């Protein structure tokens, strides 16, 4: 821990000692310690929960968040797409902590709306270059050995609106096309082995059962390596939005390949060059050529607090900065943060499990002097790769791109603690 951190902690404790309410109310410490007596302690009429019995068990057979948390929701950007059935909404990253995305807050990206599948008539077909074509029911899939793994899913278009400059005001909108959950599923390798993959096979095609019949070509090596045919997320059945009852998990690779409502895997000897890997999810360079098959998601990070939707509300003093980082190529051993636009960098404190191809949480506690700040974070992944600036990305990729924008994000914080999406050069 750095010196400034020790100092901050001491000052926080001194501040809190002035009023007991400060200790209990955390960020409201500065205001409440001045008020004596404190009605939040002395006036029980404001606290009906102390005067009546609460609901019994089973009032909510499936539990929901407190009504006071009703602002913690997925949000869309209405002008972004013409119709909600082929659209996207965004994970409220600024309201979350730790590394796991709650199931009800995982961003959604559909090309033909949410398919409402009946698990009884669910089937997964394996065909193409296999010894024995197979059809599995959901119950059949449940009889294979399962694995539990935590992975992030990031849409390749995450931060795509920011290619030509700062645009959307909030990390929910600039970085919220990502979620990170624990999947339970069967290794795709075991299912392919059951059908028997022929020796000239080199690719698989994954196909969804939704109205969009989403298809993507995936190299056989990846399919045999770490892909999962998943039916649970965070311990419970996949949500319909996430592909109930079965989705493909393609760790570290762009979200588009993670076919939801998975109904068929065809084995072949070359890629299919379908829509989602030609006209979409390729990166048009400045010279008119397009990068294709850019599957792995490069290391990226974002400060989630403070950020435009999460301003500093407490005035000068001890401040917790936090954010998330991830890499499709490994883990994140280190994140650097700056609060002065890159003049000085500090190594952030990582907290929580560190898994390959999963989200990581970082913190940087500092003493805010009440002046303007320029906040940035920079992820290092376990391969040694360092997250680039947006200018570095544009230099090699031009300005036509939408996908794979993993450039460093800047938030400008003013004296009022309000944050804004900006770029510095
Ligand atoms: N069947 C099907 N699978 C799909 C899609 C789809 O529209 N249909 N969208 C893809 C895209 S572009 C992304 S980014 C992810 C989004 O997954 P999510 O909705 O769980 O966030 O699913 C992918 N799998
Ligand atoms: Mo996507």
TrEMBL record:
Originating organism: Paracoccus albicereus
Keyword list, A-Z: Metal-binding, Molybdenum, Oxidoreductase
Gene name per UniProt: soxC
Domain Moybdenum cofactor oxidoreductase dimerisation stretches: 293-409
Region (Disordered) residue spans: 28-47
GO terms for MF: sulfite dehydrogenase activity
Domain Oxidoreductase molybdopterin-binding: 111-271
Nucleus among keywords: no
Cofactor or coenzyme needed: Mo-molybdopterin
Keyword Flavoprotein attributed: no
Enzyme Commission number(s): 1.8.2.1
Protein name: Sulfite dehydrogenase
Classification via Pfam families: Mo-co_dimer (PF03404), Oxidored_molyb (PF00174)
């Amino acid at each position: 821990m750095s010196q400034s951190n020790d100092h901050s902690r001491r000052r926080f404790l001194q501040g809190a000692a002035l009023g007991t309410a400060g200790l209990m109310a955390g960020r409201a410490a500065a205001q409440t310690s001045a008020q004596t007596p404190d009605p939040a302690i002395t006036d029980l009429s404001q606290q009906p929960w102390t005067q009546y019995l609460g609901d019994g068990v089973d009032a909510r057979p499936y539990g929901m968040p407190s009504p006071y948390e009703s602002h913690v929701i997925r949000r869309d950007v209405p002008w972004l797409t013409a119709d909600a059935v082929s659209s996207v909404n965004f994970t409220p990253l600024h309201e979350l902590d730790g590394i796991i995305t709650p199931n009800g807050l995982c961003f959604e990206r559909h090309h033909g709306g949410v398919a409402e599948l009946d698990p009884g008539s669910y089937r997964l077909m394996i065909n193409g270059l296999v010894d024995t074509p197979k059809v599995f029911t959901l119950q059949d899939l449940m009889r294979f050995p399962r694995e539990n793994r935590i992975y992030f899913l990031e849409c390749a278009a995450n931060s795509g609106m920011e290619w030509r400059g700062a645009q959307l005001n909030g990390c929910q909108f600039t970085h919220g096309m990502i979620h990170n959950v624990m999947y339970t599923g069967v290794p795709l390798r075991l299912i392919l082995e059951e059908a028997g993959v022929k020796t000239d096979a080199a690719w698989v095609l994954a196909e969804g059962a939704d109205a969009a019949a989403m298809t993507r070509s995936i190299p056989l090596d990846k399919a045999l390596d770490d892909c999962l045919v998943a039916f649970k997320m965070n311990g419970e059945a996949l949500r319909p939005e996430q592909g109930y009852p079965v989705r493909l998990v393609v760790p570290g690779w762009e979200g588009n390949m993670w076919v939801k409502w998975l109904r068929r895997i065809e084995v072949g000897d070359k890629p299919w060059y379908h829509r989602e890997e030609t006209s979409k999810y390729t990166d048009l360079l400045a010279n008119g050529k397009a990068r294709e098959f850019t599957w792995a998601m490069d290391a990226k990070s974002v400060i989630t607090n403070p950020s435009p939707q999460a301003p500093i509300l407490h005035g000068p003093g001890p401040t917790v900065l936090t954010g998330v980082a991830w890499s499709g190529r490994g883990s994140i051993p280190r994140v650097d943060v700056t609060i002065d636009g890159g003049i000085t960098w500090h190594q952030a404190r990582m907290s929580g499990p560190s898994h390959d191809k999963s989200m990581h949480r970082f913190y940087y506690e500092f003493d805010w002097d009440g002046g303007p700040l320029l906040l940035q974070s920079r992820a290092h992944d376990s391969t040694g790769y360092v997250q680039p600036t947006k200018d570095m990305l544009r230099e090699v990729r031009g300005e036509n791109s939408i996908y794979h924008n993993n450039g460093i994000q800047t938030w400008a914080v003013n004296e009022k603690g309000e944050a804004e999406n900006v770029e510095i050069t």
